[in-house]
Task: inverse folding
């Protein structure tokens, strides 16, 4: 995976310290209702298109950029689906990171899906009943995109009140 230069700069000073980083994950649909997926070069697994916003870059801008850079597809962002903190990951070189993902529903508007950089081994459109092997988090994000509901986030307990997500 291509590591953004600003993260390389931080790593030069912070070593393998756990970094809390923003991420964008896109559920991209075409006019036929198919979802855009890539098979990642770093682990060989199928995934939704994703990336890290550059400093100062808005999440929607990062999403549009990442989709085009990785797949050659131009897309527009339609909805924020969820905001979710993932479990920490440790990379083979020992670097540790934890991502807070902003998951976005997007619609393709132009371009042909193709491997467009070194981050993907394969790229393609998949009908919902013909998806390649995907993990439960990716499948859940696709299901969320199909429901057209308000943005999902993990509820928080309010100190001094009973139960998570309590609202007076």
Result:
């Amino acid at each position: 995976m291509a590591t953004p230069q600003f993260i390389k700069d931080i790593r030069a000073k912070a070593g393998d310290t756990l970094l809390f980083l923003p991420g964008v994950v896109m559920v991209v649909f075409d006019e036929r209702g198919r979802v855009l997926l890539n098979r990642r070069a770093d682990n060989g697994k199928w995934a939704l298109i994703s990336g890290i916003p550059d400093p100062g870059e808005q999440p929607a801008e990062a999403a549009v950029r990442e989709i085009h850079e990785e797949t050659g597809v131009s897309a527009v962002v339609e909805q924020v689906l969820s905001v979710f903190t993932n479990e920490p990951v440790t990379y083979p070189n020992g670097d540790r990171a934890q991502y807070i993902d902003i998951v976005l529903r997007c619609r393709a508007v132009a371009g042909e899906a193709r491997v467009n950089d070194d981050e993907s081994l394969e790229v393609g459109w998949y009908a919902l009943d013909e998806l390649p092997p995907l993990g439960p988090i990716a499948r859940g994000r696709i299901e969320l995109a199909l429901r057209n509901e308000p943005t999902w986030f993990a509820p928080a307990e309010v100190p001094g009140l009973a139960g998570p997500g309590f609202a007076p």
